[in-house]
């Protein structure tokens, strides 16, 4: 708390009247510090509210697009009921269903993003096994042409809790597969860096991305995919989950074509001798 000092002086004039002079002083450094702290808190709150407003606007925009389509198709379906046109009626109802499914996907990923689906610690497993599980899951579900998977795993890779990294690797593999609709090569390399940290690279032969979008790639709702193909939350979730492990994720275009996403993870404490 600021130190406040009061000074009081009583004075008697020639007429016998008494007057009192008081002054107050404080330790202005503490006051300035408190004021500065208050201003910083106010600025942080303003920035937080602005970020929430921006995020909310993006959510409204993402949900409004399929909602507009659903309402339009429902109106068309209603008219075709009156015209007794079952073929068109089925088409419009199916289109409405697709719009609703997209909204469900957006809401599901928003919930996942809001809690970041961060699972509690579990028994660590080798990182190459996490990658292999992610490959089996994504390649098995893909309806794209065959993609050749090339693995390059270093020896003696440390172990990590699997669940959250499995989600990160699945998202990155899926993005790589989506970028190669006609097939291609996905190289996955895991290595121990000189400082003991671990890096996992996902290099594909796809179409890459605009270099000016590098920073925006990890922002919520930003996507380079065609309308309806992605929500733009996958990489944002990856960024947050990797950060919770104490690491970071980066993106770059490859000179030979395609893109490369690299997950940097600090060596787990139990792996440090």
Mean pLDDT: 76
Assembly form of the protein? single chain
Derived from helix and strand composition plus strand pairing, the structural class reads alpha+beta
Separation of the first and last Cα atoms: 46 Å
User: Which percent bin holds the helix content?
Assistant: 40-55%
Q: In the CATH hierarchy, what is the class of the largest domain?
A: Alpha Beta
> How many separate domains make up the residues?
2
* Shape-level CATH architecture of the largest domain: 2-Layer Sandwich
Please report the number of helical segments.
5
Q: Could you give a short account of the major beta sheet?
A: 5 strands, mixed
What low-confidence regions span 5 or more consecutive residues with pLDDT below 50?
A: 116-120
> What share of the residues does DSSP label as strand, in percent?
15-25%
Secondary-structure element order, N to C: EEHHEHEEHEEHEE
């Amino acid at each position: 708390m600021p130190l406040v000092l009061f000074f009081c002086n009583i004075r008697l004039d020639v007429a016998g009247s008494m007057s009192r002079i008081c002054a107050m002083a404080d330790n202005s450094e503490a006051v300035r510090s408190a004021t500065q702290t208050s201003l910083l808190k106010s600025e942080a709150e303003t920035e937080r509210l602005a970020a929430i407003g921006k995020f909310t606007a993006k959510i409204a925009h993402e949900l409004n697009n399929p909602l507009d389509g659903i309402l339009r198709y429902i109106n068309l379906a209603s008219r075709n009921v009156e015209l007794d046109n079952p073929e068109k009626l089925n088409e419009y109802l199916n289109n409405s269903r697709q719009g609703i499914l997209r909204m469900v996907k957006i809401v599901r990923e928003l919930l996942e993003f809001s809690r970041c689906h961060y699972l509690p610690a579990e028994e660590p497993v080798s990182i190459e096994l996490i990658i292999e599980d992610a490959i089996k899951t994504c390649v098995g579900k893909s309806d794209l042409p065959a993609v050749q998977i090339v693995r390059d795993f270093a020896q003696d890779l440390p172990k990590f809790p699997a669940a959250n990294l499995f989600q990160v690797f699945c998202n990155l593999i899926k993005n790589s597969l989506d970028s190669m609709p006609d097939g291609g090569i996905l190289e996955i390399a895991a290595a121990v860096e000189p400082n003991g940290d671990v890096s996992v690279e996902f290099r594909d032969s796809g179409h890459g991305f605009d270099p000016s979008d590098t920073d925006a790639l990890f922002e919520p709702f930003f996507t380079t995919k065609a309308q309806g193909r992605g929500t733009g939350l996958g990489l944002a979730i990856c960024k947050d989950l990797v950060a919770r492990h104490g690491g970071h994720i980066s993106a770059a275009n490859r000179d030979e074509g395609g893109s490369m996403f690299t997950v940097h993870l600090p060596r787990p404490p139990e792996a440090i001798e």
